[in-house]
Design brief:
It contains twelve helices and twelve strands. The protein has 307 residues and is an alpha/beta fold. The longest helix is centred in the N-terminal third of the chain and has 15 residues. The relative contact order is 0.16.
Length: 307
């Protein structure tokens, strides 16, 4: 059958800019998707593109949506091409919400994203008091000696039972990555160093895995299901951060992760509450049992995005 389709683009400033090695991120753009049928059932989904992680752009997603309006079939949703992974997620989520509505969210342990640099020292105690035990900080935003000194202060301040993730967003070289891994080994609380090198440095990424006690995780290299599958075929068996909202079809992602026992670390793409609910349900089905999911991002979300 054909479902009535209504799309609504949005543009929300983040509550505070997110500093990354690729620059500052201050605005989240996306598209809300509504499907409805003749029985007055409605399902909402969200398209939250991240082109820097291999998804389509906001403009490309909007072109697809406008071409599909005013109605779309389930077969057409299933046939959305892999070049539009955020659209795959948004439309499939909306269809699932319409056909099999669920209430409540799964109980998951969150990794909380801290501000970069010295601000992390002021931010972690409140998160710890609220129950956080796993934290993540972005690196590659300041000179290496400055960041290593800040990391040492943070690792000494955190309780011994805390776990810390370092996310470089591909900004390091093999040499600086080894310096970070050595520092992480000394600290003893780092769960993994995430995407130290850019995806095109694949042989160097493989060489880093297992060289230190601290694990190396993929992020940009495995951002979409197609990329994740390619990394698995190439022999990667370490952790892989999966931004569910841009990975592609949730059903295919679930099947792949389960079939291949992927060490998946589902993470937020700073989507709004609509996409977050759908992403968390997928996260509960693919996350490695001993890892917190990367959805502790509330300080960056605007009020509009959280409601």
């Amino acid at each position: 059958m054909a479902y009535r389709l209504h799309v609504r683009p949005y543009r929300h400033p983040l509550q505070q800019p997110l500093a990354t090695a690729r620059g500052s991120w201050s605005v989240r753009e996306g598209i809300w998707v509504q499907l409805s049928d003749g029985a007055e059932r409605v399902g909402w989904g969200e398209i939250a593109p991240l082109p820097r992680f291999g998804s389509e752009t906001q403009a490309q997603a909007l072109v697809f949506c406008r071409q599909a309006e005013p109605a779309i079939t389930e077969a057409a949703i299933t046939a959305i091409p892999d070049a539009l992974p955020a659209c795959q997620f948004g439309f499939e989520s909306a269809l699932t919400a319409l056909q099999s509505p669920e209430r409540g969210l799964p109980a998951l342990r969150y990794s909380y994203l801290l501000p970069s640099g010295a601000a992390a020292l002021q931010a972690w105690p409140a998160a710890w008091a609220s129950g956080a035990r796993t934290f993540k900080v972005k690196i590659g935003t300041q000179p290496l000696p400055v960041e290593l000194a800040q990391f040492e202060r943070l690792s000494q301040a955190l309780p011994a039972t805390a776990r810390l993730r370092l996310d470089a967003n591909g900004s390091l070289t093999p040499e600086t990555a080894r310096q970070w891994l050595a520092a992480a080994d000394r600290a003893g609380i780092v769960e993994f160093l995430e995407q130290p090198l850019p995806p095109e440095r694949w042989p160097d990424l493989q060489a880093l895995q297992g060289e230190f006690a601290t694990a190396v995780a993929l992020d940009e290299s495995a951002a979409t299901l197609a990329r994740l599958a390619a990394c698995h075929r190439a022999g990667w068996r370490g952790p892989m951060a999966v931004k569910v909202a841009v990975a592609g079809s949730p059903a295919r992602l679930r099947r792949f992760c389960r079939a291949h026992a992927i060490d998946a670390v589902p993470s937020s793409a700073l989507e709004t509450a609509t996409g977050r609910q759908a992403a968390l349900r997928v996260a509960a089905q693919i996350a490695s049992a001993d890892r917190a999911v990367g959805f502790g991002v509330e300080p960056w979300l605007s009020e509009a995005a959280r409601s």
